[in-house]
Amino acid sequence: MKIHALIPAAGLGRRMACDGNKQYLQLGDRPILAHTLGLFQRSPRVEAIWVVSPEAEMRFCRDEVISRYGLSKVRGVIAGGAERQDSVRLGLQGMSAEENDLVLIHDGVRPLFDMDRIPELIEAALPDGAVTGVPAKDTIKTVEEGCITGTPERRLLWQVQTPQVFPYGLILQAHLQAQVDGFIGTDDASLLERKGHRVRMLQGSYRNIKITTPEDLRVAEALMKE
User: Fold this and answer.
1) CATH class of 3-132+161-225
2) Is 43 a residue whose pLDDT tops 90?
């Protein structure tokens, strides 16, 4: 059984302000995506990395990130789709993996994941997959037309993160079925949840932020300086 990392760097919300695609913004001495790929490059458990990129940026991704920073575990750069779910599906279809291999799906703009957690995630990924997350700190309200309609019990609420780890054949079929059904999930685990699979939730870290705003970038810079 091989361990693959699939990094969607396409369909991630596109641009941050006018600074360009956010995965290529500088974080310290290199682009965010280079930091993220470097996590898996250094992991002894991960054998292959597959990157999903907007088609127009594939050459830039290869030349300015993968080659420049010596990311030798990257086995391919795959053209993505309009939305993240499209990009993950296309990545799964384009990568070379066996049905029983494990695939870690990780956002290209989460460069601060603690890789010491990988063995625990891998162990928990069978049979139905495992994800990382953190308990919600704030009270959450459901709102319709500007008015509160409910207050879910906070102890039941978790903020989901990545990596999300699944048997390759299982998550590929879940994505293909979702495409047939016209179902759009909020994350990869939701495509299995709707079919009755029991995906494990493991405690993550509040440091594992997703860089989506200029404020996130400043927080990530501060965390990296630690």
Assistant:
1) alpha beta
2) yes
